[in-house]
Design brief:
Length: about 350
């Protein structure tokens, strides 16, 4: 960026200004009034045309004059980086905005709005020249949730903003959760499948608790700060304590017997580093692995239906035997209550 580009952007009006547009001579005059040397108006015109290609400014023709306006959100690092932004960087910012929008705190995302705007304009302009492959990349990528798709109650944007702000600023959060008013210390946000959870701690209580954001009826960040617990680490809460496995009960050796052609996924993506397997003559695959006993494990085993048998541990096997009997009764005529004929 030429050294005067930031000065040009500083004197340009925006759509929110009282005088929304300025001609090139007007801009040159404003620059001179700030003590900036402008030898030729055409020099300002050339810089404005370059910034137009970068998506920093907008122009319109009014009669014989060309008028200019600074794009909303273009300021600070966005203004200083616009003409230096490569197509790789512009694409990276757009991918960040698309796939990490929930993880970016609201306060930070507001500050990045200018960069997001510049990067989008950079790719739009690039579609007509050497950046066309970068501009088309966003149309070639998508994310598909591996779970069965369901229609979830959306998280209210106002609630997410308040939760995010309280988490970022380490302020107490007041919320109405399932008709219960609570004040909590927000410790972390976790995306689990298609749900977003707040991990928080009630002041005076030792254990952190999970709250689904879609179940929050109200959330308000207060101006009361709290001291973030030094002994809490979100990564440990998720990866070591395995709280999002739901009701974890410790590690155990699990032995599962899969029907022929049903174990491909487990062989390609092992349950644990110590996983072993054996295949018998009939094609059944027996897998042994050390895993966390939890509700999530049960959900996963149930997803295989009749194509997997729990061999160990015995208490888990007995639970699935009982479930199988209940399922049999549910689907059999003997288990149905027949309507009265009287």
């Amino acid at each position: 960026m030429a050294k005067n580009d930031s000065d040009i952007l500083a004197v340009l009006p925006t759509a929110r200004s009282l005088q929304k547009w300025a001609t090139t001579p007007d801009i040159a005059t404003r620059l001179r009034s700030r003590g900036i040397t402008v030898n030729h108006v055409k020099t300002v015109q050339r810089r404005l045309e370059l910034m137009l290609d970068q998506g920093l400014v907008t122009k319109r023709r009014l009669s014989t004059a060309i008028e200019w306006q600074r794009n909303e959100g273009v300021s600070g690092i966005a203004a200083s980086s616009g003409s230096l932004m490569t197509f790789d960087e512009a694409l990276a910012l757009q991918v960040l905005r698309r796939f990490a929008s929930r993880q970016i705190p609201t306060l930070v995302s507001t500050a990045l709005d200018g960069l997001f705007t510049v990067s989008k304009e950079r790719l739009t302009k690039g579609e007509r020249n050497e950046g066309r492959r970068h501009a088309r990349w966003d149309r070639k990528i998508a994310v598909v949730d591996g779970a069965f798709e369901r229609i979830r109650q959306p998280v209210k944007e106002s609630i997410f903003q308040q939760v995010s702000q309280a988490l970022f600023a380490e302020q107490l959060l007041e919320m109405d959760y399932r008709a219960s008013a609570q004040t909590v210390m927000p410790l972390g946000l976790v995306e689990a499948g298609d749900l977003i959870y707040l991990v928080a701690q009630v002041p005076g209580k030792p254990a952190a608790v999970m709250y689904r954001l879609d179940r929050m009826e109200r959330a308000q960040a207060t101006d009361r700060p709290f001291t973030y617990p030094r002994d809490f680490a979100l990564s440990s809460y998720v990866n070591k304590e395995r709280k999002f496995d739901f009701f974890p009960r410790g590690n155990a050796q699990v032995v599962l017997r899969f029907a022929p052609n049903a174990a491909h996924g487990v062989l390609e993506a092992p349950l644990s580093r110590d996983q072993t397997f054996e295949t018998d003559d009939a094609g059944f695959v027996t897998i042994s692995a050390t895993v966390m006993l939890s509700e999530r494990l049960r959900w996963w085993i149930r997803s295989y239906g009749p194509y997997v048998e729990v061999l160990e541990p015995q208490d888990l096997r007995q639970d699935f035997i009982a479930e199988a009997k209940e399922a049999f009764n549910l689907y059999s005529d003997a288990g149905r209550v027949k309507p009265s004929t009287t």
